[in-house]
Amino acid sequence: xxxxxxxxxxxxxxxCDLTLxxxxxxxxxxxxxxxxxxxxxxxxxxxxxxxxxxxxxxYLTDITLGGKKFSVQIDTGSSDLWVVGDAPNAxxxxxxxxxxxxxxxxQGAIKTAELGFAGYTVDNQAYISVPxxxxxxxxxxxxxxxxxYGSQVSDAVGDSSGDAVLDRIFQQNTSTPNYITFLLGRNDxxxxxxxxxxxxxxxxxxxxxxxxxxxxxxxxxSSSETVNQHWQVLLDANGIVGPAGNDVISEFNIESAVGSTxxxxxxxxxxxxxxxxxxxPASVAQAFYKDVPGAQLVTRSELSGQVxxxxxxxxxxxxxKFGGVSxxxxxxxxxxxxxxxxxxxxxxxxxxxxxxxxxxxATYDAIFGMAFLRNAYTYINFGDFVEGTKTTADPxxxxxxxxxxxxxxxxxxxxxxxxxxxTPEDASIGDRIKSHLPLVIGLSVAAGVLLLAGIAGLCxxxxxxxxxxxxxxxxxxxxxxxxxxxxxxxxxxxGGRAGYHPAYSNxxxxxx
Length: 512
Ligand SMILES: *[C@@H]1O[C@H](CO)[C@@H](O)[C@H](O)[C@H]1NC(C)=O
Ligand SMILES: *[C@@H]1O[C@H](CO)[C@@H](O)[C@H](O)[C@H]1NC(C)=O
Ligand SMILES: *[C@@H]1O[C@H](CO)[C@@H](O)[C@H](O)[C@H]1NC(C)=O
Ligand SMILES: *[C@@H]1O[C@H](CO)[C@@H](O)[C@H](O)[C@H]1NC(C)=O
Ligand SMILES: *[C@@H]1O[C@H](CO)[C@@H](O)[C@H](O)[C@H]1NC(C)=O
Prior knowledge:
Blueprint: H1 3-22, E1 48-54, E2 58-65, E3 68-75, E4 81-84, E5 91-100, E6 105-117, E7 120-130, E8 140-144, H2 152-157, H3 165-172, E9 179-183, E10 196-200, E11 216-217, E12 232-234, E13 240-241, H4 248-251, E14 268-271, E15 279-281, H5 282-289, E16 296-300, E17 305-310, E18 318-322, E19 325-329, H6 331-334, E20 335-341, E21 347-351, E22 354-356, E23 366-368, H7 370-373, E24 376-381, E25 396-401, H8 406-417, H9 429-447, H10 449-461, H11 463-471, H12 488-493
Parallel strand pairs: 3-8, 4-7, 14-23, 15-22
Antiparallel strand pairs: 1-2, 1-10, 2-3, 2-6, 4-8, 5-6, 6-7, 9-10, 9-24, 11-25, 12-14, 13-18, 16-17, 17-21, 18-19, 20-21, 24-25
Bound molecules: 2-acetamido-2-deoxy-beta-D-glucopyranose (5 copies).
Family: Belongs to the peptidase A1 family.
InterPro entries: Aspartic_peptidase_A1 (IPR001461), Pepsin-like_dom (IPR034164), PEPTIDASE_A1 (IPR033121), Peptidase_aspartic_dom_sf (IPR021109)
Keywords: Hydrolase, Membrane, Protease, Signal, Transmembrane, Transmembrane helix
């Protein structure tokens, strides 16, 4: 690793360390490019709030409850607000609630207080008050931005006074357009800011174009499963483009595990700002990473199981497609640097798209967490997923691709990680014909040379779909349990970084 290229991440990481050490540092800059103004909370501006970035694995914004400031993680994958420590003038409802995340849980009394969020003020917002202790730091918390269906507070309270934050905002002024948008920055990106923004009911300046992107309907789970309703949409049937520019879904015969999906080639993807490493079917992760020189599928407890370990200087180009639009993933996201080492102490990186098994009865196939979401400005229209709404409108998502300048992202990667070129290869046509040889010979004996020419042409045209059958063993999905949380204690011991958030928000993240 060239020292010049390595110096950048080290600098960033040490700044990040300071951030975490002080905890005030939610507003410290990982890079010197932007000065403090951009970090200041835009409390006076209705509709938007800045989002700070902790090591690319947690995005925080400020809220107030009873006038006291809390720095809370933004989480589109859950639906409750909880904060650690007391808020002035809070009223106890006499009820309590527990929210269980993919890992860990939080519980506490349900209280109400005046909430300030993204420039809106909500009276008597219900939230879970988690007691401060050595692990739960006063002033931290999490704001769930998912559909109200999943809200435990709302369930426990039993009437509309327990509704989730966004529902309350949209209810109290029905003229407020019922959508949110967010943009997540990338920490070590040399050409774009590390921070982000979250807006409620308005678009970010300069990104108004998002409204002309295709509207992706939110896929609705069955009425018996509404608690599992997330902001989820369908990927295109040819919507996963691997490093060699190949159509991963066809090539590996990938099918949706979601029973209700009409076209099994369309994977259901949850958009989750609270989940660090996107979760994808094991065969998708394999297609992305297995041919990268030095790649190894390893088990890392702090990354909650299996993950592809990669040399940090190997660029991996992948793209997803929604509604016919391509969303290239920045190579700094596809091969992510979490400041971890292998068992010999060498600095290693990881394939951010982590293998997982959606399991039986799945309501989704993949979770597109932060490493994907950094590549798309995202708009979520709640439609009639607002409690008490009288209008009938389907919720939908629009996304504006952000990583469209491939020359820039390539050069970003070289600056930060160094240059170690490799050539991703889809099996060449020559290899295919060679591998087809026994079949081809058998057929030619039976059918004659003339027919052979036609078949060779056919094999060539349909090579993608036939490849799995003829050239590779069928890939066995890994039957591992659903991912547990990152072992944050382990990560903490390794340098005190913020937790990598695998779960639908991991409460332990706030314990710094
Ligand atoms: C990165 O890891 C090294 C050693 O494992 C540690 O000393 C350092 O503090 C870590 N940096 C961050 C930002 O976690
Ligand atoms: C309600 O929202 C509309 C549109 O955002 C705004 O113009 C109006 O001032 C709001 N009304 C109140 C009472 O906040
Ligand atoms: C936030 O809102 C204000 C006023 O509506 C606007 O001037 C500003 O540009 C917005 N910020 C972003 C990032 O869109
Ligand atoms: C975005 O807006 C610009 C002009 O404002 C236009 O030229 C461009 O085509 C738009 N892009 C999309 C995706 O709508
Ligand atoms: C990734 O894409 C960039 C931009 O198109 C290209 O320059 C680079 O060679 C690609 N790298 C690999 C390993 O495919």
